[in-house]
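Forwarding these from the shared drive since the link keeps breaking.
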Amino acid sequence: MTEINFEVGKTYTTRSGKDVVIYAIHPNQYYAIHGAIYVDDEWDAETWKLDGCYDPISPKSYFDLMPPEPTTNEGWVNVYGNRRGSLYPTREFADAVTRADRIACIRVEWREGQFDD
């Protein structure tokens, strides 16, 4: 598995979709990540390697920690024929501040860290 920067106090999921809370990270230990996994209506203490690997013998374990899904953001851009538009948090806000020469209002969606070619 590739290295992910897991953080204490944050909630993650396993490869199988189980919730995990990390309560300690000890980088000098083989199983450096200490946390609890929610299985069968109870929290069980477990450990993982720094890369989130649960079982180093199995290349993909159901209990491997998975990186969080990136947050998707949304905004609205007023488009004008010969000048620059701005990004607004809602369509209503974009409509409220528009000028008469607007030619379009476009919804834009992106993820943090996304850089398109």
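-- next protein --
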Amino acid sequence: MSEPIQTIELSDKFESAVINGHKTQTTRKGLCAYRLGPALLHCGNTYIPITIMSLRLKHFDELTKTEAQRDGFATLAEFKDSLRQFYPTIDDSSLVTVVTFYVEEAD
């Protein structure tokens, strides 16, 4: 029996960035045990089919400008500020899971 498709909740403010390819990763506080392979991003009322390509566990203070850009941000500071809004208790030593994905083409 196959496992149900995994769903990742994502703020609807990021929907267009995902669809147009400017956002190809999402970063979550803590250890997230997503599986590589098919998943759905749930943005508001929309489900976007994706494939999870990689998962990386690191500390908040190890995030890079490249990761910020993949997450849809122009600067590392904007990226970290956004994460602090979603996770008010996050600090430099907090673990985060960096989830890299691509959007599946519609049939």
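The radius of gyration is 14 Å. The mean pLDDT is 94.

- D.
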